[in-house]
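Wait, can you check?
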Amino acid sequence: MELVKENRYHLIEKMKEHAELIAAIFSGVLILIAWILGKNAENTASIIFYLLAFIIGGFAKAKEGVEETIANKELNVEFLMILAAIGSAIIGYWTEGAILIFIFAVSGALETYAMNKSHKEISALMDLQPEEAWLVKENGEVERVSIGSLQLGDHLLIKPGERVPTDGVIIEGSTSIDEAAITGESIPVTKLVGADVFAGTVNMTGAITMEMTKPNSESLFQKIIDLVQSAQSEKSPSQQFIERFEGTYVKCVLAVVALMMFVPHFLLDWSWTTTFYRAMVLLVVASPCALVASIMPATLSAISNGARNGVLFKGGLHIEHLSVLKAIAFDKTGTLTQGKPVVTDFIVREGENEQQMLSIIAGIEAKSNHPLAQAITSFAKERGLDSFHQAQIEDVPGWGLKATVDGNVYKVGKSEFVGKMEAFEFAEGIAPKLAEEGKTVVFLADHKGIVAVAAMKDTVREESKKAIALLKNLGIHTVMLTGDNEKTAKVIAKEAGVDAYIAECLPETKVNHIKELMKEYTHVGMVGDGINDAPALATSTTGIAMGEGTDVALETADVVLMKNDLSKIAYAVKLSRKMQTIVKQNIMFSISVIVLLIISNFLQAVDLPLGVVGHEGSTILVILNSLRLLKKI
């Protein structure tokens, strides 16, 4: 019994979703019945069925037109269609009027389908949000509770196969998490204690315990939903212009139709029936339905496509801006590069054991939290060292560390600390060469002199190189903004492949550099991930934030890359350019059809049925053309 009720509920919901299309098809059946009755001289019955077709097929669009006219105090295309259908019936052209209503209803249903298709990503995301979670109490017991009752700091148990209920950090256990709902990446990510987890993602393997770190309203998952919803409600400048133009255009059409009802009768000696008939044809063919539908379905399809592929647009305006970008500026650290140094070279004094020296310097640096020290200890672990030499250290601020290891005294730090000349001459002058490559050099010295050299640098992401190459192919000038010195900036810029770089760039001067670029290129994008990037993101034509960046960067940016994959920028640019191309195609096609049909009407070369098919057919074709943007490009 419950299954029957559930199936009935789903059927009703499905029918509600496709109500417009069902009404359109039903009106089409009624028109066919009315036409057959008319052929058999059953005129009264035929007219009754035509009236039913008018009411059933045209109710939705008529209601929409009247409500919008009252709300906006502006006439619209739906109002024109109502008048055209009523006018056709008045002069006895029931079939033509009913066909007009039928095709108008079909195009309306198709437009609704396009809108629903674009909203599908939001619905899918909403469905991924869990409603309950396993709360771990202080006594260790586990209780199933509503998500709404959770508070910051709560410990939650997530079993294999369950969705993560809220943003937090793992405090016990390890697992693989499917983050496709957030990043679009299908490969699960390994998560250990201390790793961040996000609401809506799926726990694949092990049971884990997490601590809730953000309220649900501020979770990354909820932000994605808010961003896409906001984008779908925000209209592009082109769409706003079309909507302003629609009201004026409708008034002009009505004025011309009013003249058409009388002028040809006196000037061209047309009969009153012909004059009124041609006025009704004009009312149909001059309606800007296709023109009005040229932009919004395309914009929503593009937003939906982007959301599905890990790119969030905050509105149609930003898609339009992306299509005309001439230059993009990139923050270096954490955007083009990994954001943390790694050891690239480790050279020891001739005759010394490399693993032993690495163990000594790692043992010294293990006592420090400095990023360079962490890079050295990580490098040692990668080289197979599970334990290091124990060291007693003394911090020498501004210079480095002094340490005692197995009774021997060592120094770790910059060249001035260990002996500038010895550092310069070590290993046939290797240190200056490494510095020329943009690397930071750390020296290890004992009482005899330099023992070893570790060179480190912030490495460029492989995807950054690919992204820069893709943007260059699209004709976009690329610039790197960095606080590094000239030498390091030059090396990183060359490795990343950017066209230009600005070194020793302070956070507060990024805005000035963006303004300078905008003077030269007009439309400039800015890509960043940190709080210090927010002003530059806001200043640029299009601000693009990395999905793993700070909340401030995410809120300030116009476009968000949900996965830190810069190649998605090129995808977004191509998508925006394709959208602009499709919009132009739609506008040119719809205007051409309107002009052709109007001229044909004045020449009496087109009748009402053909005018209806031409006008509404062009609307359907425009919407179908827009739906091409739903496919991955």
